[in-house]
Amino acid sequence: MLIDDDPNIRDVLTEFLRELDHEVAPFALAENALAALQSGMRPSLILLDLMMPGMDGPAFLRAVASAGLADFPVVLITAAGRNAAAGLPVAQVLAKPFRLDDLLAAIEAHSRPA
Description:
Elements: E1 2-3, H1 7-19, E2 26-27, H2 30-38, E3 46-49, H3 57-66, E4 74-78, E5 92-95, H4 100-110
Parallel strand pairs: 1-2, 1-3, 3-4, 4-5
């Protein structure tokens, strides 16, 4: 699952990951991603932008936890810097701009088996 409001980032990452045979469910809005989880979607990993309009990354994480759905590893991607994620329940933080090799390493390190 990829949640990022920036269509350029979302589209490039979706295409890149799909070319490497990763299944990707892209979402522009965290609210829609939350609804997908509540409807039964079970991702092996969530790539989550920190700052988004509407429901931002921290609000999404709180909503997921309160719905009892917080059993997915989350890799936070943010332009705000690593300190902006302090105290959030995430497996790893990738600061934008990040290297695609670093993204792949994070996916490999934190994805749950399908």
